[in-house]
Fold:
Amino acid sequence: MATSQSEVEKLVHREYKHGFVTDIEQETLPPGLDEGVIRTISAFKGEPEFMREWRLSAFRHWQTMSEPSWAHVSYPPLDFQSISYYSAPKTREQIEAEAPKSLDEVDPKLLETYDKLGIPLHERARLAGVAVDAVFDSVSVATTYKDKLSEHGIIFCSFSEAVREHPELVRKYLGTVVPPGDNFYASLNSAVFSDGSFVFVPKGVRCPMELSTYFRINASNTGQFERTLIVAEEGAYVSYLEGCTAPMRDENQLHAAVVELVALEGAEIKYSTVQNWYPGDEEGRGGIYNFVTKRGECRGDNSKIAWTQVEAGSAITWKYPSCVLKGDNSVGEFYSVAVGNNCQQIDSGTKMIHIGRNTRSTIISKGISAGRANNAYRGLVKVLPTAKGARNYTQCDSLLMGDQCGAHTYPYIEVREPSAQVEHEATTSKIGDDQIFYLLQRGLSEEDAVNMIVSGFCKEVFSELPMEFAVEAQALLAVTLEGAVG
Amino acid sequence: MLKITDLHAEVDGKPILKGLNLEVGSGEVHAIMGPNGSGKSTLCQVLAGRDGYQVTSGSVSFEGQDLLAMAPEIRAREGLLLAFQYPVEIPGVKNVYLLKAAYNAQREHRGEPEVDAFEFLQLLRERTRIMKMDESFLHRGVNEGFSGGEKKRNEILQMLVLEPKLALLDETDSGLDIDALKVVSEGVNTLRGEDRSVVLVTHYQRLLDHIVPDFVHVLSDGRIIKSGDKSLALELEANGYQNVVEAA
Ligand SMILES: Nc1ncnc2c1ncn2[C@@H]1O[C@H](COP(=O)(O)OP(=O)(O)O)[C@@H](O)[C@H]1O
Ligand SMILES: [Mg+2]
Structure:
């Protein structure tokens, strides 16, 4: 199935006339995007033809589209021709040559942050990019996990590997939830995606571990156009966690990821995110634009998909993890904490599309704004005429710290089935002086008081996170909101 | 323990305390009574260090230290506790979590290590029983959805756990039924000791049947206009504040 070496070379050479890199050793393509670039990416990755054609058709579609402008965010126009769309994954030797040799060489400020976040000692070195093998043999650990998973018939690998090793599965499911022409950024991602993760849990299998464990040990730089596909067959269960609380920097400003989840009959997928990309400085300079499309389809009856997210980083977040509830009695859930400080802009929420009968959805959104941040919840609950007995409950709470920040709620409700019940509750509150004083009077510092109040506000969401992450997420909020009050 | 000298304080530019003097010795229980709006809660807030309650003159010493120079959380860690007249709700923050954080803040201040989780739980259980509270309260949000009486009990539970040197109870008895009043009184009496003092703000003699004060003071228009022993409370109960206020 893999493209032969000579074909790769042919393709690569064909691009030479465009001034692109021909040397396969070269790490990064020069900026710019056209069909040639896409062919080159596909060739570099040794992809089968169907994948290349899929990318190309997405690209052709993308060229007809324009950037969305409806979100409550503002930023200077992006120049898509100034971005470089491919960087070869670094080899182990390169990484080790560039990496600090020990924690002593790492920026003390970063270490201080790890400490505040309560990140376990044995993970700090890896997160700080210390040559990992020196302190922790991640490869052998990862292999152990992989063996254990494959005993159950579970596939968990990088997206590139899946394209090469399991093309039939990728082909069957890729783009079936987020079609390549879905939206501007999803199309761009479909054309140029770098890498990501692939998970397949076969019929009747309950994934025996939180996939975060593996991910955290093996997290690699998947680049700015990440693509993830998770499929749970009939009766399967999997819980997946992406990201981590440690601050993540990246020289690429634009991140446009796509995540697709497919749950067949009776399957359940829990997808948790902790996002802490660099938010820019206090004036909003730098910082990641995080334009993400995440969608899950409850394809079979009695299936369930739950999104949990803690969004703390990025200069701009534009993200609506959604559930398409096709199967009868299927369940969609969305639990979100989105926190913005300084100049961060967040426009996030969810879409719950009720198609099957007796489908149920729950939305719990907690927005926290501090500094001059703008935080918008945007959510759609749509009940189609086929969704007899559908129910939705939405609770949308905003917490304001200071008087220069903003909170906005844009609920869209479209109900085309009279038997549906849709409930929406929204509150906006400020952290009360009386609450802070109460805690000061019990001996807590102001910082601890604020953190305690904020954690309490987010409790319903934190309780959905895997245990060890709930603690870190709490610490993450504290770090994000440092200096927000007082 | 506490010595307040010629204390003047204002809120939003409005003078409320107008030359208040009060001395509370170790181990003593003082009751402060007085008409609505006379400044009882203001006194409590000023002593606890609430923002916006501006001290314009006078001094307060607490265990020989300048209380007014301390940040509110330091006052708390030094052993001053205010049981609020209107305790606020802090949704989602478990009672037990707050209690532990408060307890440890105090220990850290004294240079002691964090309390052992098991030992602390034992302590909590015991104090919860004294307050005749169900243990489930420990796992509910701080005052979240508590009835008025439950909030007051919860304040006293916190007091029992934190064992302050000086407890200021601002109308802790208001809104309590007779059984709850007994329980709260028992809680306060448990705390009484040679090196602990209590200042009770109350309108009702009935609390003083249970917690017998060493001194009773009448606060009116920002000043203590009369002081006496427990019989003063009985007199006030019988004749109201008016006579005392007019006589002053
Ligand atoms: N935040 C405030 N702003 C303006 N006036 C206040 C404020 N708090 C209290 N006061 C006023 O101060 C006076 C004393 O109030 P308070 O100390 O609560 O009385 P008490 O507890 O004795 O009933 C009252 O006249 C009250 O209206
Ligand atoms: Mg009062």
About this structure: The first strand of chain A starts at residue 155 and ends at 158. The two ends of chain A are 62 Å apart (CA to CA).
